[in-house]
């Protein structure tokens, strides 16, 4: 969204039309008033413009910020994935031992996991949406 | 336990790890509970995938609006 400066507010575009003679006197008065206003207010308006203008970051700095954040997110993803695979190897090995030792316990574990996951999701569906982190 | 059983176990382990990894990575973008989906994906298959698709990926309210 572009911000109009004080100077640009003064420079309004006039419509392209034929101006009747009785309006020309009014227009020249208006032009005189405009010129007087510009001579009086141009400098302070420019100063005010510069004082309130925000610091617009350069494209390079924004690209640098995005790439550094992507790097942080990528390293965090790899750390989480390695942790998941480590935990996963224990869980899968344990499940296979349980399967070969007792089928009933294995089925109990499976049904218990299904029930627990269902309960957690049901509870989560009743909670309000929270603010999410930027993870991608 | 013969060779075929071992190969089946290895294959099941690979499938579970792949499922879990995919669920975890996708849930980081679409859900508040990526660890829940990742851990569930290690234990069962393909129930977590189906439930994930139904609960997280499908926008039921949008579908309801489209029908109306």
From TrEMBL, chain A:
Alphabetized InterPro entries for the sequence: DUF5345
Keyword Transmembrane helix listed: yes
Keywords tagged on the record: Membrane, Transmembrane, Transmembrane helix
Positions of transmembrane segments: 81-100, 106-126
Region annotation (Disordered) ranges: 1-29
Organism superkingdom: Bacteria
Name this polypeptide is given: Uncharacterized protein
Organism annotation: Paenibacillus plantiphilus
Taxon lineage: Bacteria, Bacillati, Bacillota, Bacilli, Bacillales
TrEMBL record, chain B:
Transmembrane segments annotated in the record for this chain: 7-25, 37-55
UniProt keyword list: Membrane, Transmembrane, Transmembrane helix
Name by which UniProt lists this protein: Negative regulatory protein YxlD
Organism: Paenibacillus plantiphilus
Lineage: Bacteria, Bacillati, Bacillota, Bacilli, Bacillales
């Amino acid at each position: 969204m572009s911000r109009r400066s004080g100077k640009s507010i003064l420079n309004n575009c006039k419509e392209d039309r034929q101006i009747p003679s009785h309006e020309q006197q009014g227009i020249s008065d208006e032009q005189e008033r405009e010129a007087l206003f510009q001579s009086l207010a141009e400098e302070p308006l420019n100063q005010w413009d510069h004082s309130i203008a925000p610091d617009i970051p350069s494209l390079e700095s924004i690209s640098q910020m995005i790439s550094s954040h992507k790097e942080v997110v990528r390293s965090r993803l790899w750390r989480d994935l390695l942790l998941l695979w480590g935990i996963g190897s224990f869980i899968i090995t344990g499940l296979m031992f349980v399967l070969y030792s007792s089928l009933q316990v294995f089925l109990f574990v499976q049904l218990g996991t299904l029930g627990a996951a269902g309960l957690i999701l049901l509870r989560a569906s009743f909670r309000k949406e929270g603010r999410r982190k930027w993870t991608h | 336990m013969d060779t075929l059983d071992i190969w089946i176990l290895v294959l099941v382990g690979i499938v579970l790890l792949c499922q879990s990894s995919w669920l975890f990575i996708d849930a980081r973008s679409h859900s508040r509970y990526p660890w829940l989906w990742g851990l569930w994906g290690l234990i069962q298959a393909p129930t977590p995938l189906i439930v994930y698709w139904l609960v997280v990926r499908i926008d039921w309210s949008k579908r309801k609006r489209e029908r109306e």
